[in-house]
Design goal:
alpha+beta, 4-stranded antiparallel sheet, 4-stranded mixed sheet, 486 residues
Amino acid sequence: MRTKSGKSKLFWIISAVLSIIIVTFAILIIDKLSILRNTNSQPIEENSVVNGINISGLSRAEAVEAVSSYISSKANGFTVALQHGDDIYILDNDDYTINNDVHTIVDMAQNKSKYSDELKALEYFKSNGNSTMVAFNYIFQGLDEKINDICTAIETKPVNSTISFHPDRENMFEITESKAGKKIEREKLYDSINKQMLITNNVLVDLLLEDDLPEITEEYNNNLTTLISSFTTNVSDSTGGRKNNVKLALSKFNGMVINPHESVSFNDITAPHTLSNGYEIATIILNGRFVDGVGGGICQASTTLYNALVLAGATIDEVHKHTLPVKYVPLALDAMVSEGGSDLRFTNNSDYPLFIKTSSTANDVTVNIYSMALQDGITYSTRSETIRTLPALEDRIIPDSRKEYTDHVIFKGETYRLTYPREGYEVVSYLQTWQNGELIAEKVLRKETYQPQPGIIMEGILEPIDGMNIITDNFDTPTQDIVSDN
């Protein structure tokens, strides 16, 4: 009994739900039919015109019939003749199909406020007040593709000027000629066809060509060859290995073109800094001391490039100072690099490519950068100002436990000066902006602190033999202490 009663209750619940669904659908259908009936019965508003046909006051059905009659009349032998010189291209009913979607046309005309956004967006429908223009390529589908094919065959493409960069030639830039093409203005052509369609089934249009200008002209490319910055550092007192390293690292950038908004890493371009990659042993800075290492001098290459980039207005994304001051560039304008660590990274933040030329002589290395001249007669310069000098630290006496200096010291009490104490500096560098020779702005470029350094004196580690004469003033200046740095 319980089971039977449960089934009965379930039956009535399902029946009630189905009844609600049926009633809901019935209401929706009645509502839709009511809307459709109202729409169909509501007369078209006054002054409503479709392609010259006045449908004002007509019912929807009557408007559909009127527009259908118009399309039928147009479908009867509608042709488009396109004339270009002595050539005439005729398109007829073999080149298109008729679009009989009359209801959409009437709906657009009847409800312009509802479809205002669509009317603006659709190329086939143009609305002017209460007048609606249905374009030929909506009624005659496929016709615009045929017209486009004819136009494309007649038109000629413009030829852009190209620029090639050969930094080691006398004429560094090779620029090709640009040429204008010829094009048919599609919007004017379609407008002419639409206007003629209102009055005739035999449209005749002259295909008039106009210049299609190249995007890149010779003048534009010639303007890209302006020297916008140059920076030179001296290598005359460098050893042969060091000179080799400076020149080799810079040569990696010779002929490089940095495209607009492109970023570059110095280490990515110059690495690996190894003997097998052509770099030689020369003086480097390691732990605040000048020592020999592979690639000494690479930092002078990065510093020379860095200053040229700053003067060109490039964005510097990463730059580092040396531990010790260097003499080939003012303080706070150096750019120390180390493979796998410190890098020089920069971005061409302009809308024009940067062309980099590097060169060297026995005494100097130079980086020149070419591009579009900076706007409004702007140029840049830099200056360095020492804010405070930090006193040198006292000497440190270090036992030669690794026996690296046994040619100078062996016994306790024997000393050999490795480095002299060095002052430190707090320095600010500035970027100056000039316009037509007048300083108009100056901003802080970098703030750097070069820490003072102690003098380093090495001492022997063996106990002296009784009666031995101990040398206590072996303070000869080592070679690496007077070499500039890496």
